């Protein structure tokens, strides 16, 4: 989305219909009756009236969450237009659901809104707080696997390094100068447990910034079992270890993942073991070339992608996590349009931070989109997950 001249894009949208009535009078349905929907319901049920849930899964129709019924979309369509709002509580299907609602004549930010945008706007307008739903920082360029289509481009690093603790601390401190609360703060890699100072990193985040973080997350590929002191620190600072399971492509991982799960259970560490992943989206870098798109087409392409993966690197907040990895690997030029510079905090620019975090850039997209397939169909390319390679990405 492009910035709107001198007007604050954020104010323009959120002082519009979705946010301007008394929140407590607003009658809302939550679209998504899965774990995301339930979490959202718990967070906002005291802010607005939740009338019910909508879900596309016919098996859920007729059941309840708390006192709220789950309906299908046909139920909502029969209601008086404008009398009820929809909050979309699933980032995975948000674009698909938004497109469906728009095709039925409902207007974005008036009749419906993505939950994360709503919660960010709510915090800003009613609490004067800067809330962001997600940010990651990659602590290492090293990995124990070598996935051909790695979204962080690990096989393309010629001399992968662990990022120094001092550099990581600078990034984290710069970020929290701007942000009052973040939903998830993710430590990623490569494989984060390869970093020799991962214990110090966890302790630093927990001690210095834990109060501003709803969930500290470490994403691992399950090839390593962290030492006891790391596990104890994870427990102390409520870190959730998320295990990506690539055993479909790499069968030997099953044993190491089972082993890791046993150890995390033993130490009572919070963890989330994902189901085995068999497919990925191939973002297509560096072969993809979208330079033939018009400016209007690339803005729409960026909006449809709806990437949720903000990434910290070099005291900058990048909109999309693949880009800083391409820059670090020397495969892509940095561009001032594509990041928010976190140095030199200025309270008058907090709204600019929020706008960037919500996807408002000078160009209306990020320059990396010209080299990317996007996460959204129809351009997204589905491929087998985690196919191993030793080749480097060549330009
Ligand atoms: S496990 Fe694969 S996808 Fe994950 S960081 Fe390592 S190389 Fe990339
Ligand atoms: S199209 Fe690619 S580069 Fe652009 S936001 Fe989506 S994933 Fe990121």
Description:
This protein is α/β, with parallel strands linked by helices. It has two domains: 9-125, Rossmann fold; 129-384, Aldolase class I (TIM Barrel). The protein is built from 13 helices and 16 strands. It has helices at residues 9-14, 17-20, 35-44, 73-77, 94-103, 115-127, 165-178, 198-209, 228-236, 253-266, 295-305, 322-328, 350-357; strands at residues 27-31, 49-54, 64-65, 68-71, 85-88, 112-114, 131-138, 181-188, 213-220, 239-243, 271-273, 279-282, 311-313, 316-318, 339-341, 381-384. Helix 9 links the parallel strand 9 and strand 10. Helix 8 (198-209) runs parallel beside helix 9. It is globular, with a radius of gyration of 21 Å. It starts with 8 loop residues before the first helix and ends in an 11-residue tail after the last strand. 39% of the residues are buried. The mean pLDDT is 92. It binds iron/sulfur cluster (2 copies). One iron/sulfur cluster binds at residues 143, 145-147, 150, 152, 154, 189-191, 221, 386. One iron/sulfur cluster (SF4) is lined by residues 283, 302, 305, 307, 320, 322, 366, 368-369, 372, 374-375.
Average per-residue pLDDT, rounded, comes to: 92
The CATH topology of the largest domain is given as TIM Barrel
Shape call: globular
* Strand content range: 15-25%
CATH architecture of the largest domain: Alpha-Beta Barrel
Give the beta-strand count: 16
Q: What's the layout of helices and strands?
A:
Layout: H1 9-14, H2 17-20, E1 27-31, H3 35-44, E2 49-54, E3 64-65, E4 68-71, H4 73-77, E5 85-88, H5 94-103, E6 112-114, H6 115-127, E7 131-138, H7 165-178, E8 181-188, H8 198-209, E9 213-220, H9 228-236, E10 239-243, H10 253-266, E11 271-273, E12 279-282, H11 295-305, E13 311-313, E14 316-318, H12 322-328, E15 339-341, H13 350-357, E16 381-384
Parallel strand pairs: 1-2, 1-5, 2-4, 5-6, 7-8, 7-13, 8-9, 9-10, 10-11
Antiparallel strand pairs: 3-4, 12-16, 13-14, 14-15
Helix pairs in contact: 7-8, 8-9
